[in-house]
Amino acid sequence: MTSIAIALLARHLYQKTQENQKKQLQLNAKDQEIVLAYESFALSTKALTSARLKAIEAVHVKAEFLANMSHEIRTPMAGVLGMAELLQKSKLVPQQQELTNNIITSATNLLKILNEILDQSKLDAGKLELDHKDFHLPSFITDTVDLFLPQVSSKFLELKVELAPNLPCSVNADSLRINQILSNLLSNAVKFTNSGAIHVTVEHTPMNNGDISLQFSVTEAVSACQLMNRTSYFHPLLRQIAPLADGMAVQV
Question: What distance lies between CA 81 and its chain's CA centroid?
């Protein structure tokens, strides 16, 4: 009986040993899977980090190139503009005066485009800073809108400007960025409107910290077909001006 009990016990121990070995092999396999998964994750993380660094480097290279290019072009263009302004103050016949005015307008517009290119490079690099200064809001709006009067007149359109009651005259904000946004909106309104009127409205909303939030609205009459055709155009524009408009509250 004792020998039978010993035999059964030995058999039981053998089975337990086999089961333990099988479980150990399974655990080893799981450990190997975990190691492989970790190595794969580490490689993916390294690849993502490398790709991110390359993307950041590419953005910096692009920003530096655009900044250098804008500077190289802006310098001689500023010289051309300065000489044209001196020429404008001299004694000219009406035709020469008109041609000089066209030179100044074209040079000014080109400088504006160069500044926008530089701003885009700053946006990509995350280095765009708002330049808040005091300025006269009604005059600013009038000057910005007046630039589009020749285009509006050539298309026989009507341009209406409506300022909200109690709109503050003096504000502290980045007039250059606001001008860029408002000019973009007006430019596209004129471009896509073939008849009717373009309405420019300016409203303000008080904020809790004592500042105000300005709302510029440019609306125009367009057909359903025109509206569908312009949808794909405005998406990239909104993506570009959204960072400029973000948090652009003004202080009275």
Answer: 29
Enumerate domains of the chain plus CATH numbers. 1-129 (1.10.287.130), 133-245 (3.30.565.10)
The answer to whether residues 194 and 221 touch, using CB atoms and an 8 Å cutoff, is no
Q: Calculate helix-pair angle for 137-146, 175-192, nearest 10 degrees.
A: 40
Cα–Cα distance measured from residue 21 to residue 16, given in angstroms and rounded to the nearest whole number = 8
**Alpha-carbon gap, residue 161 to 216, rounded angstroms:** 11
Distance, in Å, from the CA atom of 29 to the CA atom of 35, rounded to the nearest integer, reads: 10
- C-alpha neighbours within 13 Å on the C-beta side of residue 74: 14
Closest alpha carbon to 84 in 93, 94, 96: 96
Chain segment 129-150, per-residue pLDDT in tens: 777 889 999 998 988 888 888 8
d(CA 15, CA 239): 69
